[in-house]
Design a protein that fits this description.
This is DOP1 leucine zipper like protein B. It comes from Poecilia formosa. Keywords: Coiled coil, Metal-binding, Nucleus, Zinc, Zinc-finger. By secondary structure, the protein is of the alpha+beta class. Among the domains are: 198 residues, Heat Shock Protein 90, CATH 3.30.565; 131 residues, Ribosomal Protein S5, domain 2, CATH 3.30.230; 298 residues, no CATH class; 88 residues, no CATH class. Helices cover 53% and strands 9% of the residues. Helix 12 runs antiparallel to helix 22 and helix 18 runs parallel beside helix 19. Bound molecules: zinc ion. The site of zinc ion has 7 residues, from loops.
Length: 1022
């Protein structure tokens, strides 16, 4: 305790208890072992092999760790056994893992209470001991570490320096090795390795930690080539930072098997680990995955991208998550992130590999300090992992759309096969198709099928640089965007198609309207008389409604009910459409669509506004409806006065009436509909209806008659009051509407509408006809103010009861009326058929009688004319066809033929010409030959003449010498004669020669002759 510096300031001391305290950071035993492996792996040791084994020394279970690294000298061993000394430095770019210089102490003291280190370097051997038992036994107040160093094996005795004697004595006394020989045997164990360096370090730990049951915390028996942690021991480990994934009960194999853990301990393993004599097949984890994709994480706090490798585990789909390394050393294994933490089966089987040198590991190197950086990293990893998972799934679905097997459940093989050379420890990439599991236990570079890397002297294949490799393309994102776009387009298309449908429907409705008009006109022409009688009957029926103002509520109620009925969207829709049927051209497309759709949800009021201006009279019932649903200020429409008067009445009961009548009325109607549809019309009509009807009948017929008189048979289709026409119209509309609503509305609703419309017409009929009667009353007290007076509950109840009664009564009346209507309709049909028979008979008669009438002849004439015209047309057509044929059919051929003929003609002409030319040529050649002959004869003549001239000259010269005067004149005359002869001869050759001009005294003619003779070739014409 007296240790102090030279100046007397005391040194800090370290209690032996600290050895235990220091070791508690390793809750998980493998993390303690990893520290020992790290020490050997570090560049200052740079061991190539590391052995982990269980040994028995003097009957005690021990763990032994041995490397074939550089070994330790006295000083480095002292530092190794001391605290806080870490002068580890990077060697050849390899950074040391041990940063705290605490690995050996914390690691070894976690595994057992005592440890002894044997080391052999090139020159000396060292033995050191770190033993809690020893410190306890000697009662040490401070940690003391016996260390000895000695020359490499000179004898079988250890000779140490004097000051190390105490250390040697304590080692021999307190360690398991009691003699020099035993200690030296351990040193020899180091050199017995296959390593050529014959150096290394050997650690033996005894007094192993035991569980509460007294057994060691390792299971050495289950697998004789492995060191495992029994599950009960693992469960005892309660540290939250233990490498167990808290989200699942699944324990990765690497957590309980040392062999498995060692295989992934380093991102890029440079050292072989032998667990219990068998090589650990270390994994190049980032390269042992399937469907590998490289992504990048760019932290905000760093200015560089961190690569992340994603892939599927090829061995077990249960082992997945992020493998987080720090300086090549595994910190966190299978850390589940993002979607993997949720129970949605997302990200199953996916492994991410990242080296987080920017994060700080905790002291036990099993986690990172929970900083903001760490959390950000984990979040980002979660996002990127889900992206990868989506991408691979998207791609797999694209490859095989019918596959239902998740990617994680399919058989996968690593994208690449890498194997480590047992000699140089370099990793070599094997060609595809080689099963790594079938390779020999010891593999060397010279076994490499790839000749480029078939030697231990060849450097490892360079890894792709992180910077120039982009992250993988996330195509599924693009697809998602496209899908969104497509959906939008599809929606637009559907909308367009909808418009198209509406267009066709519009056209159909127009066609129907035309048909309807035609039918109406036919009907009018056929039965004007019948119509009047029919109108009478209709009036009779509607009269009791017309009576309404006079009689108490009972007469009103039908109106109320029908109104409420027509509140239904269907009838509202009808209104909207009917206006269209009447004036389809004037109704633009858009408003109709608007009226069509809101009709189902909006109040009918808006619908009415849409349609009323086109067909005012048709909307009477709607107006009532309006008053019932939403009290409105009075309508200034003239024809609706009576309605307003009713409104006043009904408004008093609005809140209640609406509530109960709504449903009831609808039920009534549908019930009535069913009845009316199924039962044949009976002749039974209630007596009261009939009698009351008569009162009005007296008035109405006159009105109708005046109307009828005025217009008689010439009623136009536009007269809105014609009941028959209206009915036809109705039917027409129903048909049209049916086609409109096929998709959206059921048949039953349609039928209901049909009947409701019947009601509406009845009302309408009554009101319009009743105008004359109820005209005056209509203006009385129709103020909207009455709406706001609410009667008390009793009154209301009473009123309600009354109304219900009324309703029932009215419904009965209505049914009766309906039956009547049926009856009348059948009568009408009867009448119509009779009328038709009659008219047919008449037509027959008339055609019989009027055989010779004007019209008949006219007809005949017309027929004749028409016939003629048709014939004309047929002829025209035939002519045209013929013309067309002559033009079109042969034309193309003829043109060609003409062309060919023309060409052949030309050719023949040319051939003829050629023949002619040939003939001409022959003639010319003949001429030429003749001329040639002539020429030769001439030339011969010329020669002859020359010869003669020569002779004459010769003859003349001697004579001229003897007889100068006489012979001279003779010779010259002879010469002149000759020249004259020659001249005559020459004339035949040279026609231009005028002999009269030629002077024969001189030699002109001789020269000409000369010229002719020499220039024959040129002068003769061809
Ligand atoms: Zn090699």
């Amino acid at each position: 305790m007296a240790a102090q510096t030279d100046r007397g300031v005391p040194l800090s001391t370290l209690s032996p208890k600290f050895l235990h305290t220091n070791s508690t950071s390793h809750t998980w035993p493998f993390s303690a072992i990893a520290e020992l492996i790290d020490n050997a792996y570090d560049p200052d040791v740079s061991a190539k092999q590391f052995w982990i084994d269980k040994t028995m020394v003097k009957g005690e279970v021990c763990l032994s760790f041995m490397d074939n690294g550089n070994g330790l000298d006295h000083e480095t061993m002292h530092k190794m056994l001391s605290f806080g000394y870490s002068d580890k430095m990077a060697v050849n770019g390899l950074e040391p893992i041990g940063i705290y210089g605490n690995g050996f102490k914390s690691g070894s003291m976690r595994l057992g209470k005592d440890a002894i280190v044997f080391s052999k370097s090139k020159s000396i051997s060292c033995i050191g001991m770190l033993s809690q038992t020893y410190l306890e036994k000697i009662g040490a107040k401070q940690i003391i570490i016996p260390i000895i160093s000695f020359e490499n094996k000179k004898s079988n005795r250890i000779s140490v320096k004097e000051k190390q004697e105490a250390s040697l004595k304590d080692i021999l006394q307190y360690s398991l090795f009691k003699s020099h020989e035993e200690l030296l045997a351990e040193i020899d164990a180091i050199t017995s390795t296959l390593s050529s360096t014959k150096t290394g370090t050997r650690i033996i730990i005894w007094n192993l930690r035991r569980t509460s049951s007294g057994s060691t915390e390792f299971d050495f028996d289950r697998d004789r080539y492995d060191i495992r942690i029994p599950s009960e021991v693992y469960e005892e480990l309660s540290d939250p930072s233990r490498p167990l994934n808290r989200s699942t009960s699944y324990v990765p194999e690497s957590v309980i098997s040392l062999r498995e853990y060692c295989s992934i301990l380093y991102l890029k393993p440079r050292m072989q680990v032998m667990v219990r004599g068998q090589k650990v097949k270390s994994q190049l984890i980032a390269k042992s995955l399937a469907y590998i994709r490289k992504d990048h994480y760019k932290p905000t706090f760093l200015d560089k991208r961190i690569p992340i490798i994603f892939g599927y585990n090829t061995k077990s789909k249960d082992q997945y998550g992020i493998m987080m390394y720090h300086k090549n050393r595994l910190i966190k294994a299978y850390e589940r992130v993002g979607c993997q933490l949720k129970a949605n089966m997302k990200g199953v089987g996916v492994i991410g590999v990242i080296e987080c040198n920017f994060l700080d590991p905790t002291h036990n190197k099993q986690s990172f300090n929970e900083t903001d950086k760490y959390r950000k990293t984990i979040n980002s990893l979660g996002t990127k992992l889900e992206e990868y998972w989506n991408e691979i799934r998207f791609r797999k679905t694209k490859e095989d759309p019918n596959s239902t097997v998740p990617v994680e459940d399919t058989m996968k093989r690593p994208d690449q096969n890498w194997v480590q050379c047992d000699s140089c420890l370099r990793w070599r990439k094997l060609p595809d198709g080689i099963d790594v599991n079938k390779l020999p236990d010891k593999w060397y570079c010279l076994l490499n099928p790839d000749p480029q890397f078939r030697s231990c002297k060849v450097e490892e294949e360079p890894e792709d640089s992180d910077d120039d490799q982009p992250s993988y393309r996330k195509t599924y994102k693009q697809q998602e965007r496209e899908n969104k776009k497509k959906q939008g387009q599809k929606f637009e298309q559907e909308e367009e198609e909808g418009y198209l449908d509406l267009d066709t429907l519009d056209r159909q409705s127009k066609a129907f309207k035309r048909q309807h008009n035609k039918l109406t006109r036919q009907l009018q022409q056929v039965s004007p008389n019948y119509l009047t009688s029919r109108a009478d009957s209709t009036l009779r029926r509607s009269s009791n409604i017309t009576q309404a103002p006079g009689s108490p509520p009972s007469s009103e109620s039908p109106l109320v009910i029908t109104n409420v009925c027509s509140l239904s969207a269907a009838s509202a829709t009808l209104r909207g459409k009917r206006s269209q049927v009447v004036t389809p051209q004037s109704t633009p497309k858009r408003p109709r669509v608007n009226g069509f759709q809101p009709g189902a949800s909006d109040t009918p009021v808006s619908v009415r506004i849409d349609s009323s201006d086109t067909d005012e009279t048709d909307d009477d019932d709607i107006v009532i409806l309006e008053t019932a649903s939403t009290p409105k200020p009075k309508q200034p429409v003239g024809t609706l006065r009576k309605v307003k008067q009713e409104k006043e009445e009904s408004e008093n009961q609005i809140p209640m009436v609406l509530e109960c009548t709504d449903d009831a009325a609808v039920d009534e109607t549908s019930a009535a509909t069913a009845e009316a549809e199924t039962c044949p019309p009976t002749a039974v009509a209630s007596a009261t209806t009939q009698t009351t009807a008569f009162e009005v009948k007296e008035e109405q017929p006159s009105q109708n008659q005046t109307e009828g008189n005025g217009e008689t048979a010439s009623r136009s289709g536009s007269t809105p009051d014609l009941p028959v026409e209206r009915e036809v119209k109705k039917e027409q509309q129903n048909r049209t509407e049916g086609s409109y609503e096929t998709a959206s509305r059921s048949r039953s609703i349609e039928r209901e509408i049909k009947l409701e419309r019947g009601d509406g017409v009845e009302n309408h009929q009554g009101e319009t006809l009743g105008n004359g009667v109820a005209h005056m009353e209509s203006d009385e007290g129709a103020g909207p103010s009455s709406v706001l007076q609410y009667p008390n509950i009793d009154e209301v109840q009473k009123q309600q009861d009354q109304l219900v009664e009324l309703m029932q009564e009215t419904a009965q009346e209505r049914d009766a009326l309906r039956e009547q209507l049926k009856l009348l309709t059948s009568q009408l049909e009867d009448m119509q058929s009779r009328l038709q028979e009659q008219s047919q008979a008449k037509v027959k008669e008339s055609s019989h009688q009027a055989c010779q009438t004007d019209t008949q002849t006219d007809y005949k004439g017309l027929f004749e004319r028409a016939k003629q015209k048709i014939n004309d047309l047929i002829r025209d057509k035939e002519a045209l066809l013929a013309a067309n044929e002559s033009k079109s059919n042969p034309n193309c051929g003829q043109d060609e033929e003409n062309d060919i003929e023309e060409i052949s003609l030309k050719v023949s002409r040319l051939v003829q010409e050629l023949d002619e030319r040939n003939k001409e040529r022959e003639e010319l050649r003949l001429q030429l030959d003749n001329l040639e002959e002539e020429k030769s004869t001439l030339a011969a003549q010329c020669e002859e003449l020359k010869l003669r001239m020569q002779q004459q000259r010769e003859n003349a010269q001697p004579s001229a010498g003897s007889r100068t005067s006489g012979t001279n004149s003779d010779a010259s005359s002879c010469l002149i004669e000759l020249r004259q002869n020659v001249g005559r001869l020459l004339v035949s050759r040279v026609p231009a020669l005028d002999l009269a001009q030629v002077n024969f005294e001189c030699n002109v003619i001789d020269e000409i002759l000369e010229q002719v003779l020499t220039g024959t070739d040129f002068d003769f014409p061809g």
